[in-house]
Write a structure and sequence with these properties.
9 helices; disordered N terminus; about 140 residues; 3 domains; about 5% strand; mainly alpha
């Protein structure tokens, strides 16, 4: 560990921070602006939107926001088997019903449910592809749920 460069030493250079954030006036260094002020919620939002706007999808009206990271983290924890009460605490929710919104069915769960409807006696080699898997309309509809 002693041969590793100090993270603090790498993040104290304001021009480097400005290069990362795109603005010398608003450059962030380890959760603080270059002025030494703590990074606010709106500051984080602006940074995420600055870079996330390039990934926005106008066809689906989906935007990358800080909440996208929050939701994605919660879903990944659920998929990893983390108990919902632990996730509730991590997210800071008082009521478990708020956390349950993060437990929406994802595409992998939908696919697993559909596979569960296939005959059990069919071997992997003898299985034919179910018609719903080749129907682009059905697959797009499933992905939109």
């Amino acid at each position: 560990m002693e041969n590793l460069p100090s993270l603090a030493a790498n993040h104290t250079n304001a021009p480097d921070a400005a290069r990362l954030t795109g603005s010398a006036a608003n450059a962030t260094v380890g959760g603080f602006t270059t002025n030494g002020q703590p990074l606010t919620r709106s500051g984080i939002y602006k940074i995420v939107r600055r870079y996330g706007s390039t990934l926005d999808d106008p066809r689906t009206d989906r935007r990358i926001t800080p909440h996208t990271f929050r939701h994605t983290s919660a879903v990944h924890m659920l998929e990893a088997g983390i108990e919902v009460n632990v996730i509730r605490e991590w997210l800071g929710h008082v009521d478990i019903t708020t956390t349950n919104r993060y437990a929406e069915i994802n595409t992998n769960t939908k696919l697993a449910a559909l596979r569960a409807t296939e005959p059990f006696d069919a071997s992997e080699g003898s299985r034919t592809t179910p018609i719903w898997r080749t129907d682009e309309t059905v697959m797009n509809w499933l992905a939109s749920l």
